[in-house]
Structures are given as C-alpha cells and as structure tokens.
Write a structure and sequence with these properties.
single chain; about 350 residues; alpha+beta; 16 strands; about 35% strand; elongated
C-alpha cells in the first residue's frame, strides 16, 4: 500500500480512474484505474492508501545503479513521468487521460509463476519508484533480482484501502491567496531570512504555515533535516508532523515558522512520540487530573499528552504544594487546605505508580 492524496474520479473505459498525487515532497499527479470504486463512490479531497499494480510489455533491467547511469538514459534511478495525466504540446486535441506512466525504480521483491501459460505474466516485481510502490506484472525471460533497477512503461490499476479522516492540518483555502495565482514555487529557493530561520528551527518543535498554489497548510511537528542543494537544485525540508507523519517539502513554500517552547513544545512532543504520562494518570480521578492541568496551566485535553520524562517534575510540583499548604496550616493552626489535600493524594498515587514501574523495569 502507498499513500496518496485523492482529488476525484475520472470516467475511464467501463470504470473510473482516481486522479491522485503522491504525498512525498514531489507531489506528482497521476491517474490510477480503481477496481473497487463502488466501495468508495464519493471519495474526494482526502488522503488514502491504494494497493497499486501495473502491467507492461517491455522493460529494461539493470543489475545495479552504476549500470543504469552508464546506459545514459537521462533519468534518475527512481523517476516517474505520468504521461496519462497531462497532454504535451501538439496533442491537446487528441489527448485523453489514462493510467499510463513511464517509470524507473528499484526492485524490492520478485515472485515467479512457473505455471503461467505463454502470453501470460510469469513474473511479479515489487518496484519502488518516485513517490510510491507498485507490483508490476509481466512476461519476462531474463534475470531479475532484488536491488536491480528497472525502467519502462506501465498501465496502473489498484484498489483503495484505508481512507484517512480529514485533518485540521490538511490543506485549507487561504483568503489571502489569489485563486488565479500561478506562481511556480518549485523554481525558487526561500529568501535568506527564511533560510536562516529554518536552520535555527532544526531539531525544534514548530508550527509551520505553508502556502502553495492558492492553498495554505498548517503543520505542527519537528524539523529534522534541511538539505541545501547546489545552485540550480531545489532544497528540501524534512520532518515529522502531527496528523501527516513524515513529510518533506520545498522550503520556499514556508510562509511562517513559530518555534514552540515550554509546555506547548512538551505537549506536541508527547503527541508525536507517544511517550506520555497517560499511564501514570490512569489511577487518578477526573478531579485530580483537572487539578494538575490547572496548576500547570495546560489545557485539560492536552494534559494527558505531557511527556513521560516530565513525570518527576509533576511529582516535585505536588510535593511542594503539599509542603507549602501544610506549613501554612500549622502556622495558622488550622486544617490543611483542600488544595494541599489534593496535592498529597496525587503525590501518593504517583509515588506508588513510579515505584511499581521501577520495580517492573
């Protein structure tokens, strides 16, 4: 399965094609004939997984990348031309959308069918090309092994698998963007100030606002790599972002970078890594959890995502509250306040839970 952004369907030869684009930084648009479109009749503008396959009659096989480049094809070892998606100058009147592509990719797996009839596919190759993987069925008499480079043409078909829910971080219309704007963002690098800000944000948890072709996308996550290419090559930013996972994109589409700090960064880190305090707060009552969130000035819905490595800080905080309230009560000759009692109860829960966890460890 590979992930795509699904735009819409196109009627095609007694069926329908999915008009999609890859979800890597290249965002390549292509068409895939869908065999189970009846299961998803109204799918539109959503991310989904598609089990992609292809058929072909002719391929070129190279035992290694060096042999491929020495052949002088002019392509990279992972490349894709979606010839069925766009017309070329001169054939606009006769062009019809199709599921055809020209590809180059690396072989991930090979399966042979020794019982196939003449004229039928006897080989299935799992290929990683630019932006996705697909199984290529063909009749072939030569040698193909894992790691080989294969290039050729293919007609793509497949079945839709998981459809992802709409995310608050998905592309959204930006009222400040001109819908007719045709600026080509892939041709330019970010300005010097933005490039410096990207470098400053490396390794940090951030909130990004990006814009491309009239749409805005907002991402929260961690920037892990900024690859600056030589002049004439397009640089890239890579990271892990909430709601979309690993993602790479062109740095010149970044409109704003906000480096998150303190509680905000901690909560985002917990949401992304999954290493949170939820295990420690399970024995607590709702009132105790609400007490902690209020004392730490964290939204109640975000509090369970606080990172696990900060549990010691929480224990120190409630222990300090208990001590301060106890001292005040003794000085004023009164009972300890409700705030102090709640802190003491929470401290007892955490100390017991931490003791159990350390014993199991």
């Amino acid at each position: 399965m590979s992930k795509f952004f699904f735009y819409d369907y196109i009627d095609y030869e007694e069926g329908r094609m999915a008009h999609v684009c890859t979800t890597d930084m290249n965002e390549i648009p292509l068409n895939i004939h869908i065999d189970n479109d009846d299961e998803f009749p109204d799918l539109k503008d959503r991310e989904c997984e598609i089990n992609v396959a292809g058929v072909t009659g002719d391929i070129q096989v190279y035992p290694e990348a060096k042999a491929f480049y020495e052949a002088g094809t002019g392509f990279y070892e992972k490349s894709l031309i979606p010839v069925g998606t766009f017309s070329v100058p001169g054939n606009e009147d006769t062009f019809r959308p199709s599921a055809d592509v020209i590809f180059t990719g690396q072989v991930l797996d090979v399966q042979w069918n020794p019982d196939s009839e003449p004229g039928e596919p006897n080989c299935c190759i799992l290929i990683e090309t630019l932006g996705f993987e697909f199984s290529l069925f063909l009749e072939y008499d030569g040698e193909i092994e894992k790691g080989y480079i294969v290039s050729g043409s293919a007609w793509l078909f497949g079945e839709i698998g998981e459809v992802y829910p709409e995310s608050e971080y998905a592309d959204m219309a930006d009222p400040d963007c001109d819908e007719d704007e045709e600026e080509d963002y892939s041709e330019s690098e970010p300005d010097e100030n933005m490039a410096d800000r990207i470098c400053d944000a490396l390794g940090s948890y951030v909130r990004l606002t990006c814009r491309n072709t009239g749409l805005c996308a907002r991402y929260e996550g961690r920037i892990e790599e900024y690859t600056v290419r030589a002049p004439g090559w397009i640089s890239s930013v890579r990271g892990h972002f909430l709601g979309v996972g690993d993602k790479s994109f062109y740095p010149n589409i970044i409109q704003e970078i906000e480096i998150l700090e303190g509680m905000e960064a901690d909560v985002l880190r917990g949401k992304i890594t999954g290493n949170t305090i939820q295990e420690y707060i399970l024995p607590m009552t709702d009132a105790q959890i609400a007490f902690l969130a209020a004392e730490m000035k964290v939204d109640l819905e975000d509090f369970p995502f606080f990172p696990e490595d900060r549990i010691g800080d929480i224990l120190d905080m409630v222990t300090d509250i208990e001590a301060a309230e106890t001292t005040a009560a003794e000085r004023e000759h009164r009972e300890i306040s409700q705030r102090g009692r709640t802190a003491a109860e929470i401290a007892a829960v955490l100390e017991e839970k931490l003791g159990t966890t350390r014993s199991n460890g």
